[in-house]
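Hi V.,

You were right to ask for the full record rather than a summary. Here it is.
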Amino acid sequence: MDIGIKEMNHKVSEESVFVAELKREIARVIVGQESAVDRILTGLLAGGHILLEGVPGLAKTLAIKTLAHCVECAFSRIQFTPDLLPADLTGTMIFNPKDSSFSAHQGPLFANIVLADEINRAPAKVQSALLEAMQEQHITIGNRTYPLPSPFIVLATQNPIEQEGTYPLPEAQVDRFMLKILVTYPSKSEEKAILERMTAAAVPQPAKVSQPAQLLRARQTAAAIYLDDRIKNYILDLVFATRDPEGHKLAQLKNLIAYGASPRASIFLAQAAKAFAFLNGRGYVTPEDVKSIGADVLRHRIIISYEAEAENVSSEDIIQTLFESIEVP
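Predicted structure:
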């Protein structure tokens, strides 16, 4: 097994060379936000969709657009509004009067990286159309089903402070997102750098450092990273503790959790930990990888109870308790 890990380490070091250059190019445009960028890259390498939450003006859209440019992926931005229709995402059948026939017009979802801006502003029918694309990786237009390009990833943004004119995402859809990333305010020094950079005569333009084919190879390598049985059991202990806190000596959490994490949490936590190890140039997963990415996988899957709300306990607090209490291998 040691030989296998050595070989995997060598393969990861070869395949991940572009990552450092990619981060440098993104940093030419995006000041700070290293943690958010790492998690976006983790989702990209793991093939998981991402939900970004933060107040307006924190460069969420700019970060995603910059990433798409750097990896030379087809990019679509959809501004979600209450009057949006499913066909505005998926496309529709167009009538050609010359030969009296219909042909499929593919919508903006037919791209490698799709930015669903302010996703919670669209009604249920639009959410359902997006859900099919996210889960099935294909779209039905008329009587034909069309596969989406590979790689395909949805990065959705939502504003946590404004609820007027919004439609809360159904739990079934939220669960489809591998990661929920919280984008926070920059520091004072970072905001000064943003001010200087964005008010200069010429705004920095990032270079293209990768291609979709290289990204797909990196995904295959990340998926093959070694995950020890002890790490698998650690992941399962974390997830099962959200469903049965008493069975994991966390009785204090029993009345604070209405619903625990689904099996997708276990799958996504393993996949994300592998991708995070890849970003750090390792061919094996450590408990620190699980801890580093765990909150982003679990925060939107733990449904807190009314009692937790009354006591001002958030899912973040519960996750912190889990990582402090569950034994690390």
